[in-house]
Design brief:
68 residues, mainly alpha
Length: 68
């Protein structure tokens, strides 16, 4: 879906969650950065609060995992 409609933010959210669930944290974070870039270039906008919340949760979870 991202290839068909690169501004479909819900697709980025789902992909981030999927990668995170599969333990692919780096890929999930990379998806956020790509989303951020596409939205900035295409709409002069930032990811919405839901997308950013997913990103922050993945960051926080990763920090927690590395401290165990």
């Amino acid at each position: 879906m991202i290839h068909t409609d690169p501004l479909a933010e819900s697709a980025y959210q789902k992909l981030m969650l999927l990668y995170d669930q599969r333990g692919m944290r780096t890929a999930a974070l990379r998806v956020y950065k790509h989303c951020q870039k596409v939205l900035r270039e295409g709409l002069d906008a930032q990811p919405d609060q839901a997308t950013t919340a997913i990103y922050r949760k993945i960051l926080a979870t990763g920090s927690h995992r590395s401290s165990i």
